[in-house]
Specification:
Largest sheet: 4 strands, antiparallel
Distance between the termini: 51 Å
Radius of gyration: 31 Å
Shape: globular
Number of helices: 14
Order of helices and strands: EEEEEEEEEEEHEEEHHHHHHHHHHHHH
Strand content: 15-25%
């Protein structure tokens, strides 16, 4: 083996090439110095990267490891942990239910922990904490837990019993107005095998203080989130997850030795270390999120189709007028779109969120009406510990879902192959028709003004339903007849 002291490894903060070195192998079990060979290595500590310990969408810090690359802070965040209300009893002591609650907050590399309030369902802490803020697009995480360390265990099993999670709150700093105090009560939700459960409420006071000029603060929004090395020499997704897992374990070991200690289960819950586990509930929730995002585009398409069907003749005539204006004055297209986005943003200003800042939404997460079997599958470990019959049933269900995904991917591939078949002569007659049509279109557009062709095409598209055929258009029929490579699959 070759022993390499870490103090002798070079450190770098950029992408410069590090000199390689030869290291000699030694046999630790032998007292004699015998040549065993050498190994050629290029070693360095990369301080230009940021190793995430949280998921990317809830990250609280994007600074590189090397301190000399840090930029000055743009402000600070002040958190006041006031107390909890209506907590559920977590354990039974002397014949009555009680909770020994404490609060943990995390922002960036700094973790804080309140004192433990014993045997009360409405603990009061009234403790205040402050963090420096280097990027407004970050998330502050606060968690409430029930402590088992305050009890005198009667057995070794209770001595190692982990602290129970009561709930968690996330606050995105970019949603907070500067220098305004937000004092609100947040519900504490926990998703268990039995379903969604409300554990109580936590009262927090949050204030974001901006210390930089307005222009410097707005300039941060134009800067990249991650350091420069992530763009010069990107780290792969698999390696990022490995680094994140290692960072979470290191932090858990470090905080377990702090005073007061923070348990490993607390750290993993705060960091969402198990967020990559498969969940059918999250699959459906993400699908509904996609539908909600493209809902505006769907409304525009529906509005165009309504105008094309002449359901409201006045609207259809206005669409014709708008079409003529945009065709004859194409310079107005971009300004019109920009002004339209301005009007939408100004109109939505009336409906902006004021109190409280955004928090977990059980409805959007589909946690309020989730199937028990899917919850059991979500909380199952890897490898599975369930009965073989249950695992087989879930596998069959997953195969059914995979068939739908497989069919959808095949349809997408087939449409792309049909587009390629227009010019690849897989169907000689179809390719011949297409290139002759392209030649005729090019000749027509060379001879006729482009504005006249565009206006005629628009009027033809919005023609009255009496003048249209119910059957699909010849162009669509032609495209559907083009060959794909689906027939070559075994």
């Amino acid at each position: 083996m070759a022993r390499i002291p870490l103090t002798g490894i070079e450190r770098r903060v950029d992408d410069r090439k590090v000199a390689s070195r030869w290291f000699t192998f030694q046999d630790p079990s032998s007292e004699k110095t015998v040549y065993k060979g050498r190994i050629h290595l290029r070693l360095c500590f990369d301080g230009g990267y940021h190793v995430m310990d949280e998921a990317a969408h809830v990250c609280s810090d994007y600074r590189p490891t090397a301190r000399q690359l840090w930029k000055p802070p743009i402000g600070s965040i002040e958190l006041g942990v006031i107390g909890c209300r209506n907590l559920l009893p977590m354990k039974t002591v002397s014949g009555k239910g009680s909770t020994d609650a404490y609060c943990v907050a995390k922002y960036g590399p700094k973790w804080v922990r309140t004192r433990t309030v014993r045997e009360t369902l409405e603990p009061l802490w009234n403790e205040q904490f402050t963090w420096r803020v280097y990027d407004p697009c970050t998330v502050l995480t606060i968690g409430v837990f029930d402590s088992w360390g305050v009890l005198e265990p009667d057995s070794s099993d209770e001595a190692v019993r982990p602290d129970y999670r009561i709930g968690k709150v996330r606050v995105r700093l970019s949603t907070l107005r500067a220098n305004k105090v937000y004092r609100n009560k947040y519900p504490l939700w926990v998703l268990l095998n039995s379903g969604l459960k409300k554990m109580g409420e936590v009262e927090l006071a949050i204030r974001f203080l901006r210390t930089t000029p307005t222009l410097d603060f707005l300039h941060v929004y134009t800067q990249p989130l991650l350091p420069l090395m992530h763009h010069l020499k990107p780290v792969g997704v698999v390696q990022q997850e490995m680094l994140r897992s290692a960072a979470a374990k290191i932090i858990a070991v470090h905080l377990s030795r702090s005073e007061p200690p923070v348990g490993r289960e607390v750290v993993l819950y705060m960091l969402d270390a198990n967020s990559l586990a498969f969940s059918m509930r999250k699959v459906r929730a993400n699908w509904f999120r996609i539908i909600k995002v493209i809902a505006g585009l769907i409304d525009i398409i529906r509005w165009i189709e309504d105008g094309r069907s002449w359901k409201n003749p006045t609207t259809t005539m206005l669409v014709h007028a708008l079409l003529v204006m945009l065709i004859w004055f194409p310079d107005l297209i971009v300004p019109t779109l920009a002004f339209y986005m301005f009007v939408i943003g100004a109109w939505n200003y009336r409906f902006r969120a004021r109190e409280p800042p955004p928090h977990f939404c059980p409805k959007m997460s589909l946690a309020d009406a989730v199937d028990r079997d899917e919850l059991d599958e979500e909380f199952d470990t890897l490898p599975s510990t369930r009965l073989p019959e249950m695992v087989r049933a879930r596998y069959d269900k997953l195969r059914t879902l995979g068939v739908r995904v497989q069919t959808m991917l095949g349809d997408i591939a087939a449409q792309g192959e049909r587009v390629q078949a227009l010019v690849t002569w897989r169907d000689p007659r179809a390719t011949g028709i297409f290139i002759l049509l392209c030649l005729a279109m090019a000749s027509t557009l060379y001879l006729m003004p482009t504005k006249m062709v565009a206006m005629a095409s628009g009027f033809y598209y919005f023609r009255h339903p009496i003048l249209r055929d119910r059957m699909p258009s010849p162009a669509l029929n032609f495209f559907r007849r083009l060959p794909s490579l689906s027939d070559r699959l075994m």
